[in-house]
Amino acid sequence: MTRRVALITGGMGGIGTAVCRKLAKSNGNVVVANCLPGYPQKDAWLAAMRKEGLENVHAAEGDVSDFDSTAAMVRQVEAEVGPVDILVNNAGVVRDNMLKKLALSEWMAVINSNLNSVFNVTKNVIDGMTERGWGRVVNMSSVNGQKGQFGQTNYSAAKAGVHGFAKALAQEVIRKGVTVNSVSPGYVETDMVKSIRKDVLDKLVAGIPIGRLAQPAEIAALVAFLTSEEAGYITGANIAINGGMYMV
Question: 88-114 pLDDT, tens per residue?
Fold first, then answer.
């Protein structure tokens, strides 16, 4: 069994935690969860992982919206854990507003955290993957990057952009044994989604053919497959996982 090092950005959120948990239980992976510098829940999150028996989970502080902070974080991971073989670009924020009301700061916050972060982290690990002849990159896109969403020009643009990035990079690195794909979840039962006003959330769920929110573990299972040895023939793909909410 080959030991792989997996780095998950935004690794302590709802989907990120599920991905960390799944990858830590798969094929002897060593998992590194990224969080912002000084994240107050880091120690409690790590303690919870240890309580589950996941001794192979670590944390790495770094602001992935900032290139220099990201580079320093990757160097630390390489020194303390090992070179990154699997990258899951999962970090992101929302700042919803109609375009006519959208502030430049709201646009930039989403573009920097959701799209520029993908460049910042991938740029710092991709050469190592190609040199070693094996790698997996998975970008967390969104159903709203596929279909658009009222009040989310910033988020929809960023999430569409991460898959455009994946399609281009996939062509550059596949001959070196590295695959690059995107995953586009619909609405997932995370704290952020559960905080939506009940009447609004009920309306959203009513529009999902399966009739419920996705579970974070369901998203993690797809990510785990795409980062496995068996998924070596899948690259440049954007895989929808939205309960039938949007079909293309």
Answer: 999 999 999 999 999 999 999 999 999
Burial class for 203, CB neighbours closer than 10 Å (0-12, 13-18, 19+): exposed
Q: Which long-range contacts (CB under 8 A, 24 or more apart) does 98-104 make?
A: 98/150, 98/151, 99/153, 102/153, 102/154
Domain range summary for the chain, segments of one domain joined by +: 5-187+216-240
Q: State the pTM of this model.
A: 0.96
Top CATH class of 5-187+216-240 equals alpha beta
- Out of 39, 155, 233, 246, the active site residue is 155
- Amino acid 54 reads L
155 catalytic residue (yes or no): yes
The pLDDT tens digits for 210-219 are 999 999 999 9
In this structure, the number of other CB atoms found within 10 A of the CB of residue 24 comes to 22
